[in-house]
Amino acid sequence: MELFSPISGTIMPILAEGKLDEMTQKFGLSFPKFLAQVLIFVAVYAILKKFAFGPILAMLEQRRQRIADGEAKLEKIAKDLADAELNAKAVLDKANEDATRLIKEAGDSAKSLTEKRQQEAIHEANQILAKARESSTLEHEQLMSQLKREFGRMVTEATSRVTGKVLNSDDQSRINQETSAQVSL
Amino acid sequence: MSANFGPPLAMELLSAIFPTSPVLANVSSKATELFHGSSILEFLTNSVLVALLVLGIVLWFSRKATKNMTLIPHKAQNFFEFIVEFLYGQLVGIIGEKQAKLAFPLIGTLFIYILVSNWFGLIPGVGTIGVGDAVGPFMVGEVHDPLLRPPTADLNATLALSISAFLVWFYLTIKELGFMGFLSHTFGAKGGLKGFMGFVVAIVFLFVGVIEVVSIILRPMTLSVRLYGNIFAGESVLHTLGALLDKAGFPWSFLGSVLIPFPFYFMELLVGLLQAIVFTLLCSVYIQLSTTHDEHHEEEGHH
Fold first, then answer.
1. How far apart are the CA of B296 and the nearest CA of chain A, in angstroms?
2. Could you give the number of structural domains in chain A?
């Protein structure tokens, strides 16, 4: 019972007859006043719960939800932006690759065409040269032939004048042949 | 030479400043009935009148704050939201989200009601306007029956608050733990010891439980007396300081009643806030203590 002595020592004197009445008198405790205060407090509680706490907590929740939604949207936008940037980069890379390939192909094609054209030009030039040479040779031969004939005629004529003899066709032919043979040498 | 500056000189100086020796102001320890002798209106005391005024202020401001609420708050809404959010955050930190949703209306109301009541007592005229022995037109020598008295300086009101809080505490505890759970929580042995040691520990916890029950029963008393004592003491201090130069004659009595208590108004503002915090904080802690599940119960629950 020693264990409970502090409790009994504190409470029991207060609860003792007379002390409680004295306290009640001193502090003006009475049930109607107490009840009035309880009712007023309950009224404040009801008012605050209905008009203040409920709507304000709902508003705070609504605002929190809105902020959370905004944050989520922001994250989604950032993610979409990153994806779009990634896509754009991929498209650009592909375009770059295609362009490089096309340029290379065009370069190769142009080179090939150039070479082809060059070859054709060379071939054509060679053909022209060959034709020119042929033509030149032919012309040279014709000229030479004409020259020989002319030279034979002149030699025949000179011979005829020197000798004072009219040369017959055999002589002329023989002189011409000898002249031509010598000229060609 | 030094003997000339001893206590007699100090007393002379003090008596020169305060022509009359200071005595504690005669502030009544109980609320005064506004209609003496009426048994029907016995409940209508000066503190009930102020409680009704506080009720009106709270109603007016809460309506003003929550009227036409918008996501971008107006001034009153912003102010009230700040208070509610702050209180709710503090409460969640103490008793957790689940209990906070249930207990917040009570804790929030207690804080706002106590704070407004405490600060209402600092309004000039509260406790100093009333009925007394007339010394001139509209002037009394000493106010015997003040018209207004802060509710928190009336033990009826503080008891009403603490018993209301106690009932809500009991409801939340039983709702969370159940009656048997509450008994087990209060008297049950903790630590999970078995055998003889377990038996000894169980006996010890049984005694601890009895002490716990006594402390629970005393909680409304301690809460109400603490709040009442602090606010009543504040009233007494302000009245005493205000009346220090009452007998010195005009203008000293007037200047003294204004200037001497002035610094203490700031202290009383702080005390008013502090007492509101202490009351609500203790109620929160009581709820937290009794609604927290024991570890082994939770483990069993998980199994």
1. 29
2. 1
- Asked whether residue A143 is assigned to any structural domain, the reply reads yes
Judging contacts by C-beta atoms under 8 Å, the chain A residues touching residue B80 are 52, 56
Global model pTM greater than 0.90: no
Among A27-31, B14-18, B244-248, the least confident range:
B14-18
Judge whether A8 lies within some domain: no
- For residue B122, the 8-state DSSP code is T
The parent domain of residue A170 ranges over: 31-184
Flag whether A7 is in a domain. no
Q: Is B55 within 8 Å of A44 when comparing Cβ atoms?
A: yes
Other CB atoms within a 10 A radius of the CB of residue B1 amount to 4
Query: Which band of pLDDT confidence, cut at 50, 70 and 90, is reported for residue B128?
Result: confident
Q: B132 near B142, Cβ under 8 Å?
A: yes
Q: What is the pLDDT of residues A70-111, one digit of tens each?
A: 999 999 999 999 999 999 999 999 999 999 999 999 889 888
Question: Measured between alpha carbons, how far is residue B40 from residues A41, B36, B50, B72 in Å?
Answer: 21, 10, 19, 49
Is A53's CB within 8 Å of B84's CB?
Answer: yes
What's the CA gap between A135 and A120, in Å, rounded? 21
Please choose, from the candidates B167, B187, B160, the residue with its C-alpha nearest in 3D space to the C-alpha of residue B286. B167
Residue A95 lies in a domain: yes
ipTM: 0.83
Burial of A60 (0-12, 13-18, 19+ CB in 10 A): middle
CA distances to A47, A173, B102, B180, B283 from A180, rounded to whole Å, are 146, 10, 140, 152, 147
- Tell me how many helices (H) and strands (E) chain A has: 5, 0
Nearest to B246 by CA among B258, B236, B262, B263: B258
Is residue A173 very low, low, confident or very high in pLDDT (cuts 50, 70, 90)?
confident
Average pLDDT in chain B = 83
Mutate to test the interface with A, among B71, B92, B155 (most CBs of A within 10 A): B155
Segments in B178-194 forming alpha helices (H): 179-187
